[in-house]
Design a protein that fits this description.
single chain; 493 residues; alpha+beta; Outer membrane efflux proteins (OEP); six-stranded antiparallel sheet; 9 helices; 6 strands
Protein backbone atom coordinates (compact mmCIF):
# COMPACT_ATOMS: atom_id res chain seq x y z
CA UNK A 1 0.00 0.00 0.00
CA UNK A 2 1.43 3.36 -1.02
CA UNK A 3 1.79 6.16 1.50
CA UNK A 4 -1.04 8.10 -0.15
CA UNK A 5 -3.42 5.15 0.32
CA UNK A 6 -2.36 4.56 3.91
CA UNK A 7 -3.11 8.16 4.94
CA UNK A 8 -6.96 7.94 4.76
CA UNK A 9 -6.92 4.62 6.63
CA UNK A 10 -4.78 6.07 9.42
CA UNK A 11 -6.92 9.19 9.57
CA UNK A 12 -10.14 7.19 9.90
CA UNK A 13 -8.72 5.07 12.67
CA UNK A 14 -7.57 8.10 14.61
CA UNK A 15 -10.90 9.87 14.20
CA UNK A 16 -12.78 6.81 15.44
CA UNK A 17 -10.54 6.72 18.47
CA UNK A 18 -10.99 10.42 19.16
CA UNK A 19 -12.96 11.80 22.08
CA UNK A 20 -14.31 15.07 23.38
CA UNK A 21 -12.88 16.29 26.65
CA UNK A 22 -14.69 18.42 29.19
CA UNK A 23 -18.15 18.13 30.74
CA UNK A 24 -21.27 18.02 28.59
CA UNK A 25 -23.59 20.93 29.19
CA UNK A 26 -26.54 20.71 31.56
CA UNK A 27 -28.76 23.67 32.45
CA UNK A 28 -28.01 24.90 35.99
CA UNK A 29 -30.78 24.15 38.45
CA UNK A 30 -32.97 27.04 39.58
CA UNK A 31 -36.02 27.38 41.81
CA UNK A 32 -39.11 28.18 39.74
CA UNK A 33 -42.34 29.07 41.59
CA UNK A 34 -45.60 27.43 40.58
CA UNK A 35 -47.42 30.77 40.28
CA UNK A 36 -46.72 34.46 40.75
CA UNK A 37 -47.50 35.63 44.25
CA UNK A 38 -49.04 38.94 43.21
CA UNK A 39 -50.94 37.69 40.15
CA UNK A 40 -54.27 37.92 42.00
CA UNK A 41 -56.37 40.67 40.48
CA UNK A 42 -54.27 40.66 37.31
CA UNK A 43 -56.29 42.08 34.42
CA UNK A 44 -55.68 39.27 31.94
CA UNK A 45 -56.33 39.39 28.22
CA UNK A 46 -59.37 37.86 26.59
CA UNK A 47 -59.11 34.13 25.72
CA UNK A 48 -58.56 34.93 22.03
CA UNK A 49 -55.46 36.97 22.87
CA UNK A 50 -53.76 35.13 25.72
CA UNK A 51 -50.37 34.74 24.09
CA UNK A 52 -47.63 37.32 23.96
CA UNK A 53 -46.95 38.74 20.50
CA UNK A 54 -43.75 40.14 19.12
CA UNK A 55 -45.63 43.34 18.23
CA UNK A 56 -46.77 43.69 21.84
CA UNK A 57 -47.15 47.48 21.60
CA UNK A 58 -50.21 47.05 19.37
CA UNK A 59 -52.15 46.26 22.53
CA UNK A 60 -52.29 50.01 23.12
CA UNK A 61 -54.13 50.52 19.81
CA UNK A 62 -52.26 53.67 18.81
CA UNK A 63 -51.29 54.07 15.11
CA UNK A 64 -48.66 56.69 15.91
CA UNK A 65 -46.94 54.34 18.36
CA UNK A 66 -47.04 51.57 15.74
CA UNK A 67 -45.35 53.85 13.20
CA UNK A 68 -42.65 54.92 15.65
CA UNK A 69 -41.86 51.30 16.49
CA UNK A 70 -41.28 50.54 12.81
CA UNK A 71 -38.88 53.48 12.58
CA UNK A 72 -37.06 52.33 15.71
CA UNK A 73 -36.53 48.82 14.33
CA UNK A 74 -35.16 50.24 11.09
CA UNK A 75 -33.11 53.25 12.17
CA UNK A 76 -32.07 53.06 15.81
CA UNK A 77 -28.27 53.17 16.04
CA UNK A 78 -27.94 51.21 19.29
CA UNK A 79 -29.89 48.43 17.62
CA UNK A 80 -27.63 48.65 14.57
CA UNK A 81 -24.60 48.28 16.85
CA UNK A 82 -26.09 45.18 18.49
CA UNK A 83 -26.83 43.67 15.07
CA UNK A 84 -23.22 44.23 13.98
CA UNK A 85 -21.99 42.51 17.14
CA UNK A 86 -24.24 39.56 16.36
CA UNK A 87 -22.86 39.29 12.82
CA UNK A 88 -19.37 39.33 14.26
CA UNK A 89 -20.23 36.44 16.59
CA UNK A 90 -21.57 34.44 13.63
CA UNK A 91 -18.28 35.00 11.80
CA UNK A 92 -16.36 33.70 14.82
CA UNK A 93 -18.36 30.47 14.68
CA UNK A 94 -17.39 30.02 11.03
CA UNK A 95 -13.75 30.68 11.89
CA UNK A 96 -13.76 28.05 14.62
CA UNK A 97 -15.56 25.50 12.43
CA UNK A 98 -12.95 25.94 9.68
CA UNK A 99 -10.35 24.35 11.96
CA UNK A 100 -12.17 21.01 11.66
CA UNK A 101 -11.15 20.70 7.99
CA UNK A 102 -7.83 20.35 6.17
CA UNK A 103 -5.95 23.38 4.94
CA UNK A 104 -4.88 23.30 1.29
CA UNK A 105 -2.12 25.60 0.11
CA UNK A 106 -0.16 26.15 -3.09
CA UNK A 107 2.85 28.12 -4.20
CA UNK A 108 4.49 29.11 -7.48
CA UNK A 109 7.74 31.00 -7.43
CA UNK A 110 10.82 32.06 -9.37
CA UNK A 111 14.08 33.32 -7.86
CA UNK A 112 17.35 34.65 -9.25
CA UNK A 113 20.45 34.58 -7.06
CA UNK A 114 24.18 35.26 -7.35
CA UNK A 115 27.37 34.44 -5.47
CA UNK A 116 30.96 35.72 -5.41
CA UNK A 117 32.43 38.59 -7.46
CA UNK A 118 35.52 40.87 -7.50
CA UNK A 119 37.25 43.77 -9.24
CA UNK A 120 38.69 43.72 -12.73
CA UNK A 121 37.29 43.28 -16.17
CA UNK A 122 34.12 41.27 -16.55
CA UNK A 123 33.27 38.73 -19.23
CA UNK A 124 29.81 37.35 -19.63
CA UNK A 125 29.46 33.83 -21.00
CA UNK A 126 25.97 32.59 -21.89
CA UNK A 127 25.48 28.85 -22.11
CA UNK A 128 23.21 27.04 -24.50
CA UNK A 129 20.92 25.83 -21.67
CA UNK A 130 19.95 29.40 -20.70
CA UNK A 131 22.25 29.86 -17.71
CA UNK A 132 24.91 32.50 -17.67
CA UNK A 133 28.06 33.31 -15.74
CA UNK A 134 30.14 36.40 -15.28
CA UNK A 135 33.93 36.14 -14.99
CA UNK A 136 36.31 38.88 -13.98
CA UNK A 137 40.04 39.13 -13.61
CA UNK A 138 39.67 39.77 -9.90
CA UNK A 139 37.24 36.91 -9.03
CA UNK A 140 34.31 34.82 -10.11
CA UNK A 141 30.56 35.54 -9.92
CA UNK A 142 27.81 33.02 -10.61
CA UNK A 143 24.14 33.83 -11.15
CA UNK A 144 21.49 31.10 -11.14
CA UNK A 145 17.73 30.80 -11.58
CA UNK A 146 15.34 28.58 -9.61
CA UNK A 147 11.68 27.77 -10.29
CA UNK A 148 9.31 25.81 -8.12
CA UNK A 149 5.61 24.87 -7.97
CA UNK A 150 4.09 22.99 -5.05
CA UNK A 151 0.81 21.90 -3.49
CA UNK A 152 0.42 21.06 0.20
CA UNK A 153 -2.27 19.92 2.58
CA UNK A 154 -2.23 20.03 6.38
CA UNK A 155 -4.82 18.70 8.81
CA UNK A 156 -4.72 18.95 12.59
CA UNK A 157 -6.92 16.10 13.77
CA UNK A 158 -9.32 16.99 16.56
CA UNK A 159 -8.57 13.85 18.59
CA UNK A 160 -9.48 15.31 21.96
CA UNK A 161 -12.35 17.54 20.90
CA UNK A 162 -10.55 20.84 21.42
CA UNK A 163 -11.81 22.31 18.16
CA UNK A 164 -15.28 20.84 18.65
CA UNK A 165 -15.48 22.38 22.11
CA UNK A 166 -14.28 25.69 20.69
CA UNK A 167 -16.99 25.55 18.04
CA UNK A 168 -19.50 24.73 20.78
CA UNK A 169 -18.29 27.69 22.84
CA UNK A 170 -18.41 30.10 19.90
CA UNK A 171 -21.85 28.85 18.88
CA UNK A 172 -23.13 29.43 22.41
CA UNK A 173 -21.55 32.89 22.38
CA UNK A 174 -23.29 33.63 19.09
CA UNK A 175 -26.59 32.52 20.60
CA UNK A 176 -25.91 34.75 23.60
CA UNK A 177 -25.27 37.60 21.17
CA UNK A 178 -28.60 36.87 19.45
CA UNK A 179 -30.33 36.98 22.83
CA UNK A 180 -28.51 40.22 23.65
CA UNK A 181 -29.75 41.65 20.35
CA UNK A 182 -33.31 40.70 21.32
CA UNK A 183 -32.81 42.19 24.80
CA UNK A 184 -31.50 45.42 23.29
CA UNK A 185 -34.44 45.64 20.92
CA UNK A 186 -36.92 44.98 23.74
CA UNK A 187 -35.26 47.57 25.97
CA UNK A 188 -35.39 50.21 23.24
CA UNK A 189 -39.01 49.38 22.42
CA UNK A 190 -39.85 49.66 26.11
CA UNK A 191 -38.21 53.07 26.32
CA UNK A 192 -40.07 54.27 23.25
CA UNK A 193 -43.46 53.03 24.46
CA UNK A 194 -42.93 54.50 27.93
CA UNK A 195 -41.83 57.89 26.61
CA UNK A 196 -44.68 58.02 24.12
CA UNK A 197 -47.35 57.15 26.68
CA UNK A 198 -45.95 59.69 29.13
CA UNK A 199 -46.00 62.31 26.39
CA UNK A 200 -49.68 61.62 25.77
CA UNK A 201 -50.37 61.97 29.49
CA UNK A 202 -48.61 65.34 29.43
CA UNK A 203 -50.81 66.33 26.49
CA UNK A 204 -53.84 65.55 28.64
CA UNK A 205 -52.40 67.55 31.53
CA UNK A 206 -51.70 70.43 29.15
CA UNK A 207 -55.34 70.40 27.99
CA UNK A 208 -56.47 70.33 31.62
CA UNK A 209 -54.27 73.27 32.60
CA UNK A 210 -55.22 75.26 29.50
CA UNK A 211 -58.91 74.75 30.30
CA UNK A 212 -58.26 75.61 33.94
CA UNK A 213 -56.42 78.79 32.96
CA UNK A 214 -59.41 79.82 30.85
CA UNK A 215 -61.74 79.14 33.77
CA UNK A 216 -59.50 81.09 36.16
CA UNK A 217 -59.37 84.01 33.73
CA UNK A 218 -63.14 84.12 33.77
CA UNK A 219 -63.12 83.96 37.58
CA UNK A 220 -60.61 86.80 37.72
CA UNK A 221 -62.76 88.97 35.45
CA UNK A 222 -65.80 88.19 37.57
CA UNK A 223 -63.93 89.03 40.76
CA UNK A 224 -62.64 92.30 39.29
CA UNK A 225 -66.19 93.27 38.27
CA UNK A 226 -67.43 92.45 41.75
CA UNK A 227 -64.62 94.50 43.25
CA UNK A 228 -65.51 97.51 41.11
CA UNK A 229 -69.11 97.06 42.27
CA UNK A 230 -67.92 97.05 45.85
CA UNK A 231 -69.04 93.50 46.52
CA UNK A 232 -65.61 91.92 47.26
CA UNK A 233 -62.35 93.15 48.70
CA UNK A 234 -58.99 93.67 46.97
CA UNK A 235 -57.78 90.46 48.67
CA UNK A 236 -60.21 88.44 46.54
CA UNK A 237 -58.76 89.99 43.39
CA UNK A 238 -55.22 89.23 44.59
CA UNK A 239 -56.16 85.61 45.33
CA UNK A 240 -57.76 85.13 41.92
CA UNK A 241 -54.69 86.67 40.23
CA UNK A 242 -52.29 84.47 42.20
CA UNK A 243 -54.24 81.36 41.34
CA UNK A 244 -54.31 82.23 37.63
CA UNK A 245 -50.59 83.03 37.38
CA UNK A 246 -49.57 79.90 39.28
CA UNK A 247 -51.61 77.73 36.94
CA UNK A 248 -50.18 79.49 33.89
CA UNK A 249 -46.67 78.79 35.22
CA UNK A 250 -47.53 75.10 35.64
CA UNK A 251 -48.77 75.00 32.05
CA UNK A 252 -45.51 76.54 30.80
CA UNK A 253 -43.46 73.99 32.77
CA UNK A 254 -45.27 71.13 31.03
CA UNK A 255 -44.01 72.36 27.66
CA UNK A 256 -40.43 71.81 28.76
CA UNK A 257 -41.19 68.33 30.01
CA UNK A 258 -42.99 67.42 26.79
CA UNK A 259 -40.08 68.71 24.68
CA UNK A 260 -37.69 66.45 26.58
CA UNK A 261 -39.85 63.38 25.92
CA UNK A 262 -40.20 64.37 22.26
CA UNK A 263 -36.42 64.69 21.92
CA UNK A 264 -35.89 61.30 23.55
CA UNK A 265 -38.34 59.70 21.11
CA UNK A 266 -36.57 61.38 18.18
CA UNK A 267 -33.23 59.82 19.15
CA UNK A 268 -34.83 56.40 19.63
CA UNK A 269 -36.23 56.44 16.10
CA UNK A 270 -32.97 57.72 14.61
CA UNK A 271 -34.05 61.30 13.97
CA UNK A 272 -32.38 64.62 14.74
CA UNK A 273 -34.53 66.24 17.46
CA UNK A 274 -34.65 69.52 15.50
CA UNK A 275 -36.35 67.71 12.61
CA UNK A 276 -38.81 65.70 14.68
CA UNK A 277 -42.20 66.68 16.04
CA UNK A 278 -45.21 64.84 17.45
CA UNK A 279 -48.51 66.67 17.25
CA UNK A 280 -50.68 66.68 20.35
CA UNK A 281 -53.81 64.52 20.32
CA UNK A 282 -56.93 64.55 22.46
CA UNK A 283 -56.87 60.90 23.53
CA UNK A 284 -54.71 58.74 25.78
CA UNK A 285 -54.25 55.03 25.00
CA UNK A 286 -56.23 52.89 27.36
CA UNK A 287 -54.63 50.44 29.76
CA UNK A 288 -54.79 47.16 27.83
CA UNK A 289 -55.55 43.69 29.16
CA UNK A 290 -52.22 41.96 29.72
CA UNK A 291 -51.28 38.46 28.55
CA UNK A 292 -51.37 35.63 31.01
CA UNK A 293 -48.15 33.81 31.84
CA UNK A 294 -46.75 31.23 34.22
CA UNK A 295 -43.33 31.44 35.88
CA UNK A 296 -41.93 28.38 34.08
CA UNK A 297 -42.12 30.16 30.72
CA UNK A 298 -40.02 33.05 31.95
CA UNK A 299 -36.77 31.08 31.46
CA UNK A 300 -37.47 30.74 27.73
CA UNK A 301 -39.19 34.04 27.03
CA UNK A 302 -36.81 36.56 28.59
CA UNK A 303 -33.84 37.32 26.32
CA UNK A 304 -31.57 38.36 29.19
CA UNK A 305 -32.08 34.97 30.88
CA UNK A 306 -31.41 33.19 27.59
CA UNK A 307 -28.26 35.25 27.15
CA UNK A 308 -27.04 34.34 30.64
CA UNK A 309 -27.66 30.64 30.00
CA UNK A 310 -25.77 30.69 26.69
CA UNK A 311 -22.86 32.29 28.50
CA UNK A 312 -22.92 29.30 30.86
CA UNK A 313 -22.85 27.00 27.83
CA UNK A 314 -19.84 28.83 26.39
CA UNK A 315 -18.00 28.69 29.72
CA UNK A 316 -18.75 24.97 30.02
CA UNK A 317 -17.28 24.27 26.58
CA UNK A 318 -14.21 26.36 27.41
CA UNK A 319 -13.33 23.82 30.13
CA UNK A 320 -12.96 21.14 27.45
CA UNK A 321 -10.78 23.46 25.36
CA UNK A 322 -8.48 24.01 28.34
CA UNK A 323 -8.30 20.30 29.24
CA UNK A 324 -7.34 19.37 25.67
CA UNK A 325 -4.02 21.18 26.16
CA UNK A 326 -2.85 18.22 28.29
CA UNK A 327 -2.84 15.95 25.24
CA UNK A 328 -0.65 15.92 22.13
CA UNK A 329 -1.67 17.57 18.88
CA UNK A 330 -1.54 15.36 15.80
CA UNK A 331 -1.10 17.02 12.44
CA UNK A 332 -1.13 15.18 9.13
CA UNK A 333 0.63 16.94 6.30
CA UNK A 334 1.49 16.16 2.71
CA UNK A 335 3.11 18.22 0.02
CA UNK A 336 4.44 17.74 -3.45
CA UNK A 337 5.53 19.67 -6.49
CA UNK A 338 8.36 20.45 -8.87
CA UNK A 339 11.62 22.35 -8.53
CA UNK A 340 14.10 23.12 -11.31
CA UNK A 341 16.60 25.69 -12.48
CA UNK A 342 14.92 26.04 -15.87
CA UNK A 343 11.32 27.02 -16.46
CA UNK A 344 10.94 24.88 -19.56
CA UNK A 345 11.83 21.65 -17.74
CA UNK A 346 10.02 22.42 -14.46
CA UNK A 347 7.21 19.88 -14.88
CA UNK A 348 9.20 16.70 -15.42
CA UNK A 349 9.72 13.51 -13.44
CA UNK A 350 13.34 14.19 -12.38
CA UNK A 351 12.32 17.52 -10.86
CA UNK A 352 9.40 16.12 -8.83
CA UNK A 353 9.41 16.01 -5.02
CA UNK A 354 6.90 14.98 -2.32
CA UNK A 355 6.64 14.43 1.41
CA UNK A 356 4.00 13.00 3.72
CA UNK A 357 3.78 12.13 7.39
CA UNK A 358 2.25 12.85 10.77
CA UNK A 359 3.71 15.03 13.51
CA UNK A 360 2.98 15.05 17.23
CA UNK A 361 3.39 18.08 19.46
CA UNK A 362 3.13 18.01 23.24
CA UNK A 363 4.28 20.41 25.93
CA UNK A 364 6.30 18.44 28.46
CA UNK A 365 6.75 21.19 31.03
CA UNK A 366 4.90 24.48 31.38
CA UNK A 367 5.31 25.31 35.08
CA UNK A 368 1.60 24.71 35.80
CA UNK A 369 0.28 26.83 32.94
CA UNK A 370 -2.25 24.27 31.69
CA UNK A 371 -3.50 23.49 35.20
CA UNK A 372 -4.01 27.19 35.81
CA UNK A 373 -5.89 27.56 32.52
CA UNK A 374 -8.23 24.70 33.44
CA UNK A 375 -8.83 26.19 36.89
CA UNK A 376 -9.51 29.57 35.31
CA UNK A 377 -12.05 28.00 32.93
CA UNK A 378 -13.75 26.19 35.81
CA UNK A 379 -13.92 29.38 37.86
CA UNK A 380 -15.34 31.25 34.86
CA UNK A 381 -18.01 28.56 34.56
CA UNK A 382 -18.93 28.85 38.24
CA UNK A 383 -19.18 32.63 37.87
CA UNK A 384 -21.44 32.33 34.82
CA UNK A 385 -23.69 29.85 36.65
CA UNK A 386 -24.05 32.29 39.54
CA UNK A 387 -24.76 35.09 37.06
CA UNK A 388 -27.43 32.98 35.37
CA UNK A 389 -29.17 32.15 38.63
CA UNK A 390 -29.06 35.80 39.68
CA UNK A 391 -30.57 36.85 36.36
CA UNK A 392 -33.40 34.35 36.87
CA UNK A 393 -34.04 35.68 40.39
CA UNK A 394 -34.03 39.26 39.11
CA UNK A 395 -36.50 38.28 36.38
CA UNK A 396 -38.97 36.83 38.86
CA UNK A 397 -38.53 39.84 41.14
CA UNK A 398 -39.29 42.28 38.31
CA UNK A 399 -42.47 40.44 37.33
CA UNK A 400 -43.65 40.36 40.94
CA UNK A 401 -42.80 44.05 41.39
CA UNK A 402 -44.79 45.14 38.35
CA UNK A 403 -47.70 42.87 39.21
CA UNK A 404 -48.05 44.34 42.70
CA UNK A 405 -47.57 47.84 41.27
CA UNK A 406 -50.38 47.37 38.77
CA UNK A 407 -52.68 45.90 41.39
CA UNK A 408 -51.90 48.71 43.84
CA UNK A 409 -52.28 51.40 41.18
CA UNK A 410 -55.65 49.92 40.20
CA UNK A 411 -56.90 50.08 43.77
CA UNK A 412 -55.51 53.58 44.17
CA UNK A 413 -57.15 54.74 40.94
CA UNK A 414 -60.57 53.76 42.26
CA UNK A 415 -60.09 55.67 45.52
CA UNK A 416 -58.64 58.74 43.80
CA UNK A 417 -61.54 58.85 41.35
CA UNK A 418 -63.91 58.96 44.30
CA UNK A 419 -61.86 61.80 45.79
CA UNK A 420 -61.97 63.67 42.48
CA UNK A 421 -65.72 63.25 42.18
CA UNK A 422 -66.15 64.61 45.72
CA UNK A 423 -63.84 67.56 44.99
CA UNK A 424 -65.83 68.43 41.87
CA UNK A 425 -69.11 68.36 43.78
CA UNK A 426 -67.67 70.49 46.57
CA UNK A 427 -66.34 73.01 44.05
CA UNK A 428 -69.68 73.26 42.29
CA UNK A 429 -71.46 73.93 45.58
CA UNK A 430 -68.85 76.51 46.61
CA UNK A 431 -69.13 78.38 43.30
CA UNK A 432 -72.92 78.55 43.70
CA UNK A 433 -72.59 79.82 47.27
CA UNK A 434 -70.00 82.40 46.22
CA UNK A 435 -72.21 83.75 43.47
CA UNK A 436 -75.01 83.99 46.03
CA UNK A 437 -72.70 85.92 48.36
CA UNK A 438 -72.80 83.30 51.08
CA UNK A 439 -69.04 82.58 51.27
CA UNK A 440 -65.82 84.41 50.47
CA UNK A 441 -63.63 83.86 47.41
CA UNK A 442 -60.90 82.24 49.49
CA UNK A 443 -63.13 79.22 50.04
CA UNK A 444 -63.65 78.90 46.29
CA UNK A 445 -59.94 79.19 45.57
CA UNK A 446 -59.15 76.45 48.07
CA UNK A 447 -61.65 74.07 46.52
CA UNK A 448 -60.52 74.91 42.99
CA UNK A 449 -56.93 74.13 43.95
CA UNK A 450 -58.01 70.84 45.53
CA UNK A 451 -60.02 69.83 42.45
CA UNK A 452 -57.18 70.70 40.06
CA UNK A 453 -54.68 68.81 42.21
CA UNK A 454 -56.91 65.73 42.13
CA UNK A 455 -57.32 66.01 38.35
CA UNK A 456 -53.57 66.14 37.81
CA UNK A 457 -52.94 63.38 40.32
CA UNK A 458 -55.36 61.10 38.48
CA UNK A 459 -53.62 61.79 35.18
CA UNK A 460 -50.21 61.15 36.74
CA UNK A 461 -51.52 57.88 38.18
CA UNK A 462 -52.80 56.87 34.75
CA UNK A 463 -49.34 57.54 33.35
CA UNK A 464 -47.81 55.36 36.05
CA UNK A 465 -50.25 52.54 35.30
CA UNK A 466 -49.47 52.72 31.57
CA UNK A 467 -45.69 52.75 32.20
CA UNK A 468 -45.96 49.82 34.60
CA UNK A 469 -47.97 47.83 32.07
CA UNK A 470 -45.17 48.37 29.53
CA UNK A 471 -42.58 47.29 32.10
CA UNK A 472 -44.57 44.16 32.96
CA UNK A 473 -44.83 43.15 29.31
CA UNK A 474 -41.07 43.63 28.97
CA UNK A 475 -40.44 41.67 32.19
CA UNK A 476 -42.45 38.78 30.71
CA UNK A 477 -40.25 38.77 27.60
CA UNK A 478 -42.14 41.23 25.42
CA UNK A 479 -43.41 38.56 23.04
CA UNK A 480 -39.92 37.26 22.24
CA UNK A 481 -40.24 33.70 20.93
CA UNK A 482 -37.03 32.45 22.55
CA UNK A 483 -35.23 31.98 19.22
CA UNK A 484 -31.48 32.35 19.81
CA UNK A 485 -30.48 31.31 16.28
CA UNK A 486 -32.22 33.85 14.06
CA UNK A 487 -31.00 34.43 10.50
CA UNK A 488 -28.18 36.86 10.11
CA UNK A 489 -29.54 40.41 10.08
CA UNK A 490 -28.98 42.41 6.89
CA UNK A 491 -25.94 44.60 6.67
CA UNK A 492 -26.68 48.25 7.26
CA UNK A 493 -25.31 51.00 5.01
Amino acid sequence: MTPFLRLPTLTLALLLAGCTLGPDYQRPTTTVPVAYRHAEGWQAAAPKDLEMRSDWWRRYDDPTLDRLMVQLNQRNQSLAQAEATYRQSLALVSQARASLFPTLSSSLGATRSGRGGGSGSNTVIRNSNGTSGTFSSGGTSTISNAYDASLGVSWELDLWGRVRRQVEADRATAQASAAELAATRLSLQTQLATNYLQLRVLDAQQRLLDATVSAYERSLRLTQNQYRAGIVTPADVAQATTQLKSTQADAIDLRYQRAQLENAIAVLVGEVPANFQLAAVKTIPELPPLPSAVPSTLLERRPDIAQAERQVMAANAAIGVAEAAYYPDLTLSASGGYSASQWGSLVSTPNRFWSIGPSFALSLFDAGLRRAQVESAEASYDASVAGYRQTVLDGFREVEDYLVQLRTYGEEAGVRQEALDAARRALQLAENQYQAGLIGYLDVVTLQTTALSNERTNLTLLGSRLSTSVQLIAALGGGWDGNVTPPAPPRRP
